[in-house]
């Protein structure tokens, strides 16, 4: 078997693994959604809180692992691309959900809690953009000031959303 044939076999094996793991993540996401509704009902948490905090964190863990692994491998652009690309792709989920929602526009059905979470996410994206424009070498705790602000905005948003109900 020539060198080119082995390379092609290798890439197909990589694609097969990639698709297989993506299917496992998709199945886990479906299962998580099936568990989120009863979790909200049994804990008296709103669907906005369960979706905006618990399922969002759970479904983002694979993306977090990819980003941290990429950083540790020295593939910084892969890590940032994963994060920003995931954020951009996630916004398409609202459009996909709008297709699935048969009672009109899903945008009219979202509550004030989701509107708050959306505004907070937009603010966080603005901070991320500032960090990409103005590249700080060192900040508080040897991380960028933008990262500190993002942590404050996220956990502040979680606190507000938790108290909302």
UniProtKB/TrEMBL annotation:
<feature type="transmembrane region" description="Helical">
    <location>
        <begin position="116"/>
        <end position="134"/>
    </location>
</feature>
<feature type="transmembrane region" description="Helical">
    <location>
        <begin position="45"/>
        <end position="68"/>
    </location>
</feature>
<keyword id="KW-0472">Membrane</keyword>
<dbReference type="Pfam" id="PF01699">
    <property type="entry name" value="Na_Ca_ex"/>
</dbReference>
<keyword id="KW-1133">Transmembrane helix</keyword>
<feature type="transmembrane region" description="Helical">
    <location>
        <begin position="12"/>
        <end position="33"/>
    </location>
</feature>
<feature type="domain" description="Sodium/calcium exchanger membrane region">
    <location>
        <begin position="15"/>
        <end position="160"/>
    </location>
</feature>
<keyword id="KW-0812">Transmembrane</keyword>
<dbReference type="InterPro" id="IPR044880">
    <property type="entry name" value="NCX_ion-bd_dom_sf"/>
</dbReference>
<dbReference type="InterPro" id="IPR004837">
    <property type="entry name" value="NaCa_Exmemb"/>
</dbReference>
<feature type="transmembrane region" description="Helical">
    <location>
        <begin position="75"/>
        <end position="96"/>
    </location>
</feature>
<protein>
    <recommendedName>
        <fullName>Sodium/calcium exchanger membrane region domain-containing protein</fullName>
    </recommendedName>
</protein>
<feature type="transmembrane region" description="Helical">
    <location>
        <begin position="143"/>
        <end position="164"/>
    </location>
</feature>
